[in-house]
Automatic annotation (TrEMBL):
Cited PROSITE patterns: HTH_ARSR_2
Superkingdom per UniProt: Bacteria
MF terms (GO), sorted A to Z: DNA binding; DNA-binding transcription factor activity
Domain HTH arsR-type: 1-95
Keywords, ordered alphabetically: DNA-binding, Transcription, Transcription regulation
Pfam family, one: HTH_5
Record-linked InterPro entries: ArsR-like_HTH (IPR011991), HTH_ArsR_DNA-bd_dom (IPR001845), HTH_MetalResp_TranReg (IPR051081), WH-like_DNA-bd_sf (IPR036388), WH_DNA-bd_sf (IPR036390)
PANTHER family listed in its UniProt record: HTH ARSR-TYPE DOMAIN-CONTAINING PROTEIN (PTHR33154:SF38), TRANSCRIPTIONAL REGULATOR, ARSR FAMILY (PTHR33154)
Protein's name in the database: HTH arsR-type domain-containing protein
């Protein structure tokens, strides 16, 4: 589950603000349990347990199923990521480009793979040849198991602009047929053929529906990813404000006509769990792949 610092995430924070509900989550992480079983283990009445379960269900953390006359509770969420607002450097001017996820210029992918638009799949699923279909530019979500997808962003820097910092942000997840909330994948980022670093996506999420994912997408396939921001400056590279690698702006040759951005599942990756990129109209962030160039 992906949260941010806004009112829309408050139901989850409120649901977690209870020792009893945290205890319930711990018990449900081991197995599904009925209301009677939970009441017995917690030493509480079934009425009180049902009240706590209702708050967890309203927050999307658990769900119910029936087993005869018993109401069974099970966890829906394996992990929660909280995204804080980005630190902005207002002293710099900037150029910003958002590139739709279907506007890749090079690719080499292996099934399971495919593309989805606002109304349906684009081309045939699990057929790499369709990644060059002209309708790919309408894609709001793409996925593949092995290989890479590459984009070229226009470089608007002029000879009088000094690049001070680069931000690359996108919503990413793993790729598993249908979905798997625990499915780690090592996704490697490269810019201008320079490898920046590798982030391990924890899963391919369908525990809840993506906020912007179209209604036609089935509930049991990947719904959303995690927003990641790679920041590169003169001191190094950072992922979500944490040290990522020693690559600096000087390593990128930033005055080429374009910035070439690649997302790859490498052959020697420890966790080869694929990659899904969510763009505008999909996932939890109504955003395409964004490149921001801060300059003085």
């Amino acid at each position: 589950m992906e949260l941010d610092i806004s009112d829309r995430s408050l139901p989850v924070y409120k649901a977690l603000a209870s020792p009893v509900r945290l205890n319930i989550i711990q018990k449900l992480s081991q197995r599904k349990m009925s209301v009677r079983e939970l009441a017995s283990e917690l030493g509480l009445s079934s009425t009180i347990v049902l009240m706590h379960l209702g708050k967890l269900a309203d927050a999307g953390l658990i769900e119910f199923e029936r087993d005869g006359h018993n109401k069974i509770s099970r966890l829906k969420v394996d992990n929660i990521n909280v995204r804080f607002p980005q630190i902005i450097y207002p002293a710099f001017d900037s150029y910003t480009v958002q590139l739709p996820v279907g506007h890749f210029t090079n690719y080499q992918v292996e099934p399971s793979c495919g593309m989805a638009g606002q109304d349906d799949f684009i081309g045939k699923v699990d057929t790499p040849g369709y990644f060059m279909d002209p309708d790919r530019i309408k894609a709001g979500m793409i996925w593949w198991t092995a290989g890479f997808v590459e984009y070229q962003f226009p470089n608007y820097l002029t000879k009088n602009d000094k690049l001070e910092m680069l931000d690359l942000s996108m919503e990413l997840g793993s790729e598993f047929p249908f979905s798997n909330n625990v499915w780690p994948s090592d996704i490697t980022f490269s810019i201008n053929d320079k490898e920046i670093g590798t982030w391990t996506s924890p899963g391919d999420f369908s525990d809840i529906r993506g906020k912007y994912t179209p209604a036609w997408v089935p509930d049991n396939v990947n719904q959303y990813g995690i927003m990641k921001t790679v920041r590169i400056n003169h001191d190094g590279s950072f992922l979500d404000a944490q040290p990522f690698s020693d690559v600096t702006l000087a390593d990128l040759d930033p005055y080429q006509p374009t910035f070439k951005v690649r997302f790859a599942i490498k052959e020697d990756a420890k966790n080869q769990g694929g990659c899904t990129i969510f763009g505008k109209g999909f996932g939890n962030y109504d955003q395409d792949i964004e490149l921001k160039l801060y300059h003085s």
